[in-house]
Write a structure and sequence with these properties.
57% strand, mainly beta, Porin
């Protein structure tokens, strides 16, 4: 009776296993939607540091802003617990820097927000290390690099009074998530961190630009995969 109970229990678990042959596929596809929270990590210039010693200094700080990006998934099986993933997409960002106590023509200081909009074509190439599947769930970690091209770059717009950013970027990415298997698809929520490696600041002869020496892109994203 005990043996028969164990067999029945095992059969029930097998029946309840969604997409049992999923991990045996050499290649599979999907798409994703993502909500990033993004900002510039900034490094102030020596000119900015010098003006802090004045009686009425200006302060410059980066603000966190939401964005959105979406794209496709190409997943290639390399080993039992290791995949390579190419997840190209398009991202829409608006990174803001706050200038407080800015001198005005009216001799009254004010707070100004300078936002740099960007439409990025992003080409992340990642490795995915996954745990052993437990029924219809599995945890994993990802890491890799993300080249990006800004289609909305202001690099050639020399007449803009404010801040401009470079056209190309390269970021280091890492994160973690959970694969959840359903009868007809796999759903995976993921948290991913992105740290820009290249200086995005373009030096211009205006107060906003001269206050900065370096700007790098940084994101924390909630990504929803459907594969």
């Amino acid at each position: 009776m005990l043996s028969a109970t164990n067999v029945a229990s095992a059969q029930k678990r097998i029946v309840g296993l969604n997409k049992p042959g999923y991990d045996d596929r050499p290649v599979h596809y999907g798409f994703y939607l993502a909500l990033p929270f993004t900002k510039y990590n900034i490094q102030h210039s020596q000119e900015y540091v010098n003006q802090l010693n004045t009686s009425d200094p200006m302060t410059v700080n980066a603000k966190v802003s939401p964005g959105f990006y979406t794209g496709l998934v190409l997943n290639v099986r390399l080993a039992e617990y290791l995949d390579a993933r190419f997840v190209p997409g398009v991202g829409f960002y608006g990174r803001t820097i706050e200038y407080d106590n800015v001198p005005q023509a009216t001799e009254e200081n004010a707070t100004e927000l300078v936002t740099i909009p960007s439409t990025m074509v992003e080409l992340p190439l990642l490795l995915k290390y996954k745990s052993k599947r437990r029924t219809n769930y599995r945890v994993y970690m990802v890491g890799g690099v993300k080249p990006g091209i800004d289609l909305n770059s202001r690099k050639n717009d020399r007449g803009v009074e404010g801040l401009r950013a470079e056209k190309f970027d390269l970021a280091l990415e890492y994160g973690f998530g959970v694969d959840m298997f359903y009868p007809y698809f796999k759903f995976a929520p993921e948290i991913r961190f992105s740290h820009g490696l290249l200086n995005q600041h373009i030096a211009d002869d205006n107060m906003y630009s001269r206050s900065l020496q370096r700007m790098t892109n940084h994101n924390v994203s909630l990504i929803l995969y459907f594969e």
